[in-house]
């Protein structure tokens, strides 16, 4: 009886896995269609300087709505696009689009745009040149662009990584470490990296108004970052209580639903007109 049941479970598991595989094949070709049809979108989420209350940067976040109206979350399609290599053309599109849109934001102040990168993009030998070319084509000053890299990309800590980061720094492109604290990297390696910003992941922010350990960790990160001249941004801030605590701990910048959700360019312009 037990054996039979086990077998049934296995078959159900296998069937589900198979469905999953087929769903991914379909999703993959639909995503390719979206790239080819120029149907991807970027939404922008403001990052606020706690000191001045102004928007300093907006983060570009990719959005994909299928022709039949399904919203697929980046948590789903980004890993898929990374596994198929489609993140290369999609990421290039995002960079170019962000560098085009950032011009429309300048009437509201010197707003910078931050673009997320995948490891696959960053490790391409021609990546630096590609960024330079996009800046040129779109007539964008380098210091209006920021790049967000995850800890896992930086942790490899190879000479190549440091070299590329150094080149970005020299031309004035700021680099931020995204999702900081989720990659088990330890703090000492930061000293070696030519990066100018650190984004504390939402998992440390969620309960920060109540959790003594989250407060201690965040205080430590902020102290260390300040000493090596890095700016600290708290991600996923949703409440005033979190902001009050983060301010107390010396955090300089805030991003989260409390201020604004990611939004299309036209909506962002209305937001900036009111807040910048
Ligand atoms: P991320 O770079 O850490 O972006 C922040 C994510 O947190 C976004 O999710 C944003 O919508 C969400 N968020 C912002 N404030 C809050 C808040 O107060 N509460 C909560 N619960 N969430 C908040 P999103 O847009 O779903 O993107 C998820 C991830 O997908 C991004 O995380 C990034 O890693 C990746 N991604 C998005 N666009 C791109 C892209 O163009 N290229 C690459 N390589 N990755 C991207
Ligand atoms: Mg990011
Ligand atoms: Mg993040
Ligand atoms: Mg994240």
TrEMBL record:
Domain EAL: 24-276
This protein's name: PAS domain S-box-containing protein/diguanylate cyclase (GGDEF)-like protein
Organism: Pseudidiomarina maritima
Lineage: Bacteria, Pseudomonadati, Pseudomonadota, Gammaproteobacteria, Alteromonadales
